[in-house]
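Trying the structure run again after the queue cleared.
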Amino acid sequence: MFQKILIANRGEIALRVLRACKELGIQTVVVHSTADSDAMHVRLADESVCIGPPPSRESYLNIHQIVAACEITGADAVHPGYGFLSENAKFADILAAHNITFIGPSGDHIRIMGDKIEAKRTAKRLGIPVVPGSDGAISDEKQAKRIAAEIGYPVIIKASAGGGGRGMKVARTEADLEVALHTAKSEAGAAFGDDAVYIEKFLEKPRHIEVQVFGDGAGHGVHFGERDCSLQRRHQKVWEEANSPALNTEERSRIGGICARAIADLGYSGAGTIEFLYENGEFYFIEMNTRLQVEHPVTEAITGIDLVHEQIRVASAAGLSVRQEDIKFTGHAIECRINAEDPRTFTPSPGTITHFHTPGGLGIRVDSGVYSGYRIPPYYDSLIGKLIVHGRNRVECMMRLRRALDEFVVDGIKTTLPLFRDLVGNADIANGDYDIHWLEKFLAKGD
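Done. Tokens:
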């Protein structure tokens, strides 16, 4: 096991990792920008190192400074959390060159899954069902029209190096295709420095289902069930739950088994999430995230397994603590992402939190790094906390969630709490009857 882990992140995820390290008896080092000197994870860590001014590129994305912090403090491993450098293959390679363990997959696996086209090819080779579409980047409009005609309209153009909805355009007819292709390539080039795009069949009313997987790097893989992340705004997840209300036991077992075998065959090490669109009983691979997910607590709630502990075990070559037959799913869990944003316009709302009170009671968990008097800086992601609720079934979970949302108090700034209070009382949400377009339509109506 590691002696000292440096946590290369901030906010609630830095605090989440820090707590896991403390439970395992591992010394912790956190890095921080000058804007985060009074953050909760900085206060609680064994050591802290300031690595630069507020802009991420000069602090949390500054690989040189983070490696220097490892060497100064004697950290023998780095946990990247999510975001920032968590899926940066170069960072993983540099740490390895300095004999520092990256708590995550190899740089090669990050590279493979970070390229959407190569990821799709790899998924197909591993037996994971994929969305019909091009095998690689589209070279010109003629090729795009031919493929679109083969798979049928509507189609979607996606950036190969993309994410977060950028470089994605839908074409419902051949007449739309030329504009969609040109626009997607322009957006991809501007956002990612790579204008390569590919084409896929566009599903009209799919759900977003993701499977949590783990590999030990030695040919063994397991899955920890699926999460439903269909409630999204501009391709950003807002509400996640496990298990999915849309799947039955047979479907759950089938897709989980496919993903676990694929991870084993890939020789993958650590945590990963294989994401799908799901429609009419079929799963279609869209991407794999080679890191811990924001929504990992709902999986922990229904399995009782600490996924950060597992990450650290695997990275230290101790292997997985469980076999597939040891993983049991109990009850239902929902996570709401609480952002410092206007609940309707989603405009960021940085500022000082004058009062912060979290809900309690059986089945309630709040992951947050803020506190009363904390000033939210304007430089980073607006996520300030996550409310995770667990119940014996979905009905009980929703009842507890409604109560917990009523108890949650954040004063001094605007947050998305009012949105979740609206959602928990909606009939479609109560029935689990929604898809990836539902929330955008709900917000457009102003309900």
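The longest strand covers residues 221-233. Worth checking whether this holds up in the mutant runs.
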